[in-house]
Queue: 4 jobs
Job 1
Amino acid sequence: MRISILSDFHLGYERFRDDAYRQAEEALRKAAEVSDMMIIPGDIFDNRSPRPDVIAEAINLFRNLSCRKWNAKVVDFKGEGSFYTTLPIIAIPGTHERRAQDAADPVDILGLAGLVVDISNATAVVECGGEKVAVRGIGGIADDRFRQVVQKEAPAPIEGVFNVFMFHESLYELLPFNKDFMRYDELPKGFDLYVSGHIHNRVEADVHGKKLLIPGSTVLTQLKAGEQGGKGFFVFDTKTSRYEFIEIRSRRFVLLKINAADIAGADQIDHIRLKIDEAIREGDGIPVIRVMVEGARKKSHDFDMELNDIPRRYAGSAIVEISRNGISGDTVREALASDQVVFERMSVRDYGMSIFLEKARAAGIRTGKIGPAELLDLLGSDSSKDKVLGKALDALSG
Ligand SMILES: [Mn+2]
């Protein structure tokens, strides 16, 4: 069977809302043409409570798929929840969609509507021409709970079929700044293929002698160096264990690192503009160009003004973003950038979560019962401090 693996559409992502929709649409359409079944390891939506128009976008995308003729179909389902379609389109929620335990997340909506098969904590078995593929899913949960859940649930392959383990988590080998993240060798053994979302650039690695494939997001989000490669999805052939990455048309992203200290003062702005012009000419469309100015020699008001004016001058031909290191007024940026590994691959939301977790631990709060993500959700669920504290205490002691 040919399995397409698509991830992190981030529908509703404010900054590139149209890109998110258009690129997800192309990825889904192309994947449907070249594969028998589809698996989606999380972050279909950018937000745990998407607005109705974003939900409508998602329904449109998946309804288009459900109108196609699929030879493969879901023939069995084991675990939490149920399945409301036999369409071989299998998904889990990611960290962006994560809500407090037992609260419905937006992927539940797609599942209940019969547009995808939601395997947040379940296995779906897909059959096509006598061949069977089982996909065991664990939806995106807080990093520290992932290990507990894997130990408790002990996901195991099914005999006599091709087994996929699908999740949405940070992994230590890819994000080596937090020793608590799961390591490859802690992932459950015996599966024929491992698939994760969460990481927004493409990853091909080996786990227990099998492939771990992470397709990356279909839309630009983090503007990190790793996002300069093309966006797209994987297609894995269970018969040959070979796979390929199929690119989609996506907005170009160029990261320009400019050391202003190397350039004569008066030419700094000209030099930066020349580099931007070159980047625009290198390809089609309206690219996102992130200019990182480092070690600026000239810290004058004029220089700052001219630098700030650059994005406006390129309106219509490029989306230019200027990051300035070493220029006055950027102490916050400097402080954040000092933890470069973190920001290279981790979202700000996850970084915030790790700080919250640290503080909670230092205060002696054991979040094991409901998990830190759920606790943070609860604390933000109402504007009344007394109410949320009451709810949090209930959840922690309950
Ligand atoms: Mn994501």
Note: The longest strand covers residues 121-128.
Job 2
Amino acid sequence: MKVSTSKTPFNTLFLDRDGVINVRNFDGYITRPSEFIFCKHAMEGIQLLASLFDRIIVVTNQQCIAKNIISESNLNDIHRYMTDSLAAKGIKIDAIYVAENLKDAPNDRRKPSPAMGLEAKEQFSTIDFTNSWMVGDTDSDILFGMNLGMHTAAVKSNERLTQTPTLLVTDLVELYNRI
Ligand SMILES: [Mg+2]
């Protein structure tokens, strides 16, 4: 694959999961690896973007855990499938942060709270939010990125956005081509 060398290097790529990496289930949750379908151009896009970033971190809201719809072990199986599939293409995901709590629970870690970003900064002290990107498909993703001072990109979906991201793109390959 031809990778451009003329682009600016960035610090950290934060990716939402559902609707960005995998096709979102609008009627419910992804409950097993067989339901995890990569979005069109997601793998190719992440592979391209990986050349521009020091690290890639997934930040995902999964209140299906608190609702007891799936177990942590189910979720780990899904994430192992995701990271193994990406690793087969030479793509490394450095960390996955999951907000398992219910919406509006005490100590809510769900996006748009910056909690998972701050946890990532604890783990990776060289994270520089001002030179990082958050990519998502909902207002809460964009607000999460804005709350941490990041550039933001929204992948177009059926969900209407009220926030204005830095970039609005069809998929992750388009994001690579435009940043
Ligand atoms: Mg999403």
Note: The helical segments are 42-50, 72-87, 115-123, 139-147, 172-178.
Job 3
Amino acid sequence: MIPINLQNRNALVCGASKGIGKACAIRLAQAGASVCILSRNAVLLEELLHQLPRTQYQNHQVLIANMEDPNDLDKKMHHLVLNHPIHILINNTGGPAAGQAHLAKVEEFELAFKQHLIANQIITSHAIQGMKDANYGRIINIISTSVKQPIDNLGVSNTIRGAVANWAKTLANELAAFHITVNNILPGATRTERLESIIQKEQLLHHKTQQEIEQLLLAAIPMKRFAEPEEIANAVAFLASPLAAYITGINVPVDGGRTKSL
Ligand SMILES: NC(=O)c1ccc[n+]([C@@H]2O[C@H](COP(=O)([O-])OP(=O)(O)OC[C@H]3O[C@@H](n4cnc5c(N)ncnc54)[C@H](OP(=O)(O)O)[C@@H]3O)[C@@H](O)[C@H]2O)c1
């Protein structure tokens, strides 16, 4: 098997304190990258910082930032890239609250737009020069299979994922000439706090037990199990590596076959 080697590469993983982002940070560090981990929770990030592998003289660091606050994010990204050019960027954050689109408040859409699309744009715009200078860039957005098939009762999420996917495809076209690839990972149901909260909301909505909701979700997955966050991170590590140099502008579902379309 060809190993994934990210030695001498700097990665920024957003939403890294938990779930999929945390698994990505660990996987990229295992592959040799120096990883900057970003979220709002200083305690969880410091804990993770000490867990990250350091076998290749890696220089990991923490960036405490709120992706709902564009001005703060802009300032912090400006300072980060002065000393730490980014070659691999994982755009990831918490998912919008569950609920139907036609019942959602305008403020919910505004918040999701700010936390996802605007935050991605700010972070990415600061990262691009370092990628150009290194002749190596990987931008990987963690979004959702709802890009291909909207998910019931995730109205705001479905909407913002479509916007991020089209933003990413546009960037892929613009940045390919600089050896920068831009791809989206579409996780299926993955064992994280996000999945737990979605299951709890479904329990309340349909007056069912946790087990009943889980059985319903699993029935729609050909592999009949949820993903582990590490399985999403493995796909991210591949796209982040030199092995994926000619792959850009695509959506990669990691969903056990759940998406019904190609
Ligand atoms: N799990 C699934 O089944 C699944 C399926 C499809 C898509 N997704 C999507 O994949 C993404 C990651 O999911 P996950 O399951 O890993 O979620 P998660 O377990 O809820 O973790 C979310 C991460 O994002 C960070 N975050 C949330 N709001 C933030 C903010 N305003 N600023 C900075 N960081 C913030 C959280 O850290 P702090 O709280 O420390 O800030 C945490 O590290 C989400 O967009 C989710 O909707 C998940």
Note: The chain has one domain: 10-190+228-254.
Job 4
Amino acid sequence: MKRTSTVVWAAAGGACLALSVAFAAVSAGNPVEERQAAMKAVGQSMKEGAGINSAATFDAAKAKTIMESVAANAKKLHGLYPAGSDKDAKSEADPKIWENKADFDKRLTELGTLATTASKATTAEAYSPAYKAVGGTCKSCHDIYRTKKKS
Ligand code: HEC
């Protein structure tokens, strides 16, 4: 099994060299689509998370499910920014990501850590600032590392 996945990774690495050509050819399972889908899911979770952000609407079980999903997506996102994938016409990823990959990854880790904290909230008082902290990571990262859609 291990051998197979090594071969797959080697093939993926080779495909990266062909950049946009490879990305255009691969419609399923490409990292740009996967990371956009993961980000979309995070956006959806944040919307759901806003819905329980008051003393009247707070639900600890929902907070757990929603924020665990954000944390899982943050973890998944780490592997979805291979070098050169900003060249995809559909991607809004800024080339600065690969100049400051350590900072970018640190921000993804922070998103995951803060979401995990929010997932453990058992009261609205604990959830509210935790939810806000998760939300604070979105714009600060987008401001630096997300560009307008290239066409
Ligand atoms: C570590 C940096 C980082 C953090 C933190 C981050 N994002 Fe993103 N986000 C990006 C980048 C980069 C893109 C563009 C990806 C691409 O198009 O290749 C993006 C794209 C998106 C998109 C568009 C997806 C699409 O359909 O193309 C949404 C929605 C989104 N982010 C929501 C969020 C929300 C909500 C949060 C906070 C809970 C968040 N993001 C946190 C970097 C980040």
Note: The chain has seven helices and no strands.
